Amino acid sequence: MFENQQPIQKDKLHDQVYDRLCTLLREGEFTPGQAVPVSKVAKAFGVSAMPVREALTRLLAIGVLANVSGRSVGVPVLGYDELTDLRNVRLEIESLAVRWAVKNCDKAFLAEIDDLLGRLEKTEQSGDIAAYIKTNYEFHLRLYQQSRSPVLTEVIDTLWLRVSPHLYQLEKEDQYKVSNIHHRKIVESIHRGDADAASEALIADLSDAYEVLVRMLFQTEST
Amino acid sequence: MFENQQPIQKDKLHDQVYDRLCTLLREGEFTPGQAVPVSKVAKAFGVSAMPVREALTRLLAIGVLANVSGRSVGVPVLGYDELTDLRNVRLEIESLAVRWAVKNCDKAFLAEIDDLLGRLEKTEQSGDIAAYIKTNYEFHLRLYQQSRSPVLTEVIDTLWLRVSPHLYQLEKEDQYKVSNIHHRKIVESIHRGDADAASEALIADLSDAYEVLVRMLFQTEST
DNA sequence: ATCCTTGATTCGTGATGACATTCTTCCGCT
DNA sequence: AGCGGAAGAATGTCATCACGAATCAAGGAT
User: Fold this and answer.
1) Which of A82, A96, A125, A149 is nearest to B84 (CA)?
2) Interior angle at CA A79, CA A73 and CA A84, nearest 5
3) Closest nt to A36 (CA→C1')?
């Protein structure tokens, strides 16, 4: 007993700042291209500049933030090539995770994923976009965690953090309504143990969101 | 002209520290489990604690370093499960990158990869292990860069940084001699445009190294 | 009216210092 | 001799500050 206990990590200040920034990123509170100054965040969170600096450094390290203007960091503005690259990689890696998840499928997982799907459909009807975004993230994350690969899950999580600020702009569209069709297909495929169908449905889910996003971002520029 | 010019990034102090730490990691200068104190690095590099702290934070963020004892950070000691997880993910992601690279194959790439293979075989004969490790990294990196996916290349690069400190322990074995057989097979497959064969050879390359490493690390524990 | 220049402000980088926690060592107890 | 605790050293965390670079704004020149 107690051989494999990790030492308890106290929540350092910079960890809390990091988590809050991640939440804000997932909720689309950051406009791409807009600077995120240390002092503003520090003031808003009621902490000194130091832990904020550390949190921003971490987000910078995993590619979520980038230099946007000489000295300032912020969510980078993604061009068409970068968005497409992100999509291509996500398609491969996330569909891989789903295939692994189907292999590791068990009863507890099925129950949880059913519950999450139910909550997704509930939030869809209520029209609460923020809740839908949050639940959608939980749904996908739970899916990938079932791959039982911490490395893969972590990679995917950072990729999500990179696209979230941009994907959030889909809120004005009705993308989330068609998205649940794919979600249902994913869950059904998992119940049947059909890894190929599940990854197909996931790919359709990601691709649809990508299509809408690209159309929204670049339809005016091409004219 | 000059529309798409990125602002020139001066080499900040923490960037230089980060690069040097990465090099040291790839050269196996860090023993897993051993603490890497800020003050020691700062003194060794002749800088203050601040830039070192920032560099370590970045390495911590991408999972290369981890908490090893309450307060200290260092290269984490990897158990069998973690090594296997890393291998599984690397197998999938790196073979994917190679398949993409074959698709994007061009003359300049072929010339460069031929040159790198030649240098690999030269360093193999000279027995200069440090040079072999370095060239091996360049060979693989160049391979993955041809996937023309910055996201994928970056993911792979951090994965390499995570395993490098452990893989370096293979220096005492003669692993690098059989490794070049796989390298040659990879290059030949690329020349033929055979993506499947190339990824197969890459998988064999990674798997062999993994096998030797696992045997070395865990042969005594299982008795 | 537009562009350039210049001063003021903002902000990031790196340095230093105070404080709390952890690690280490050594001494005393059993 | 082995174990446990306490004092000292070492180290990470966070705050604050000095400095320089970048941004912004206002005023002057064309």
Assistant:
1) A149
2) 120
3) C11
* Structural domains of chain B, ranges and CATH numbers in brackets: 13-74 (1.10.10.10), 80-218 (1.20.120.530)
For residue A99, give both structure tokens: 């295939």
Q: How far apart are CA A124 and CA A132, in angstroms?
A: 6
Residue B190: is its pLDDT beyond 90? yes
Lookup: nucleotide whose C1' is closest to B36 CA? D11
Alpha carbon of A13: minimum distance to chain B alpha carbons (Å): 14
- Residue A136 near residue A120 (C-beta atoms within 8 A): yes
CA dihedral A119, A121, A123, A127 (to 10 degrees): 180
Closest residue, chain B, to A85 (C-alpha): B149
A68: its two tokens: 């946007």
* Cβ-contact B118, B110 below 8 angstroms: no
With an 8 Å Cβ cutoff, the interface of chain B facing chain A consists of: 7, 9, 54, 57-63, 67, 69-70, 82, 85-86, 88-89, 92-93, 96, 149-152, 154-155, 159
Q: What pLDDT, in 10s, does the model give residues B124-174?
A: 888 888 888 899 999 999 999 999 999 999 999 999 999 999 988 777 666
Give the chain A residue nearest B85 (alpha carbons): A149
Q: Tell me which residue in A57, A82, A93 faces B54 most closely, judged by beta carbons.
A: A57
